[in-house]
Amino acid sequence: MYLKAMTKYPDDNKIAVPIVQAAVVATPQGIKVVNIFDVKKGKLDDALALAVNRMVMFYDIQGFRVTFETYLNLEEAMKTIGM
User: Fold this and answer.
1) Is residue 33 within 8 Å of 23, Cβ to Cβ?
2) Which residues pair with 25 in a beta bridge?
3) CA–CA–CA angle 51, 4, 48 (5° rounding)
4) Residues 18, 12: contact at Cβ < 8 Å?
5) By the 8 A CB rule, do 66 and 55 touch?
6) Which residue from 26, 31, 24, 39 is spatially nearest to 69, judged by alpha carbons?
7) Is the pLDDT confidence value at 20 over 80?
8) pTM (predicted TM-score)
9) What are the extents of the domains in the chain?
């Protein structure tokens, strides 16, 4: 299913560059996968739309949950405090 999602909605380096393609860990609740992308300036909405489109393909799997979190890199974070 993952390969199908990636084929239908491939990475687009004009939107975001993969930093960590997939970090996987098994937990008592199941499998957790983390992807980290460096999103191009002004492309956050496009990056989130791409991620959501990929994940929709998994919604029929019982117990499947997804969250999207946005983080600032150090340079961006420092700018928010005037540095």
Assistant:
1) yes
2) 32
3) 5
4) no
5) yes
6) 39
7) yes
8) 0.81
9) 2-80
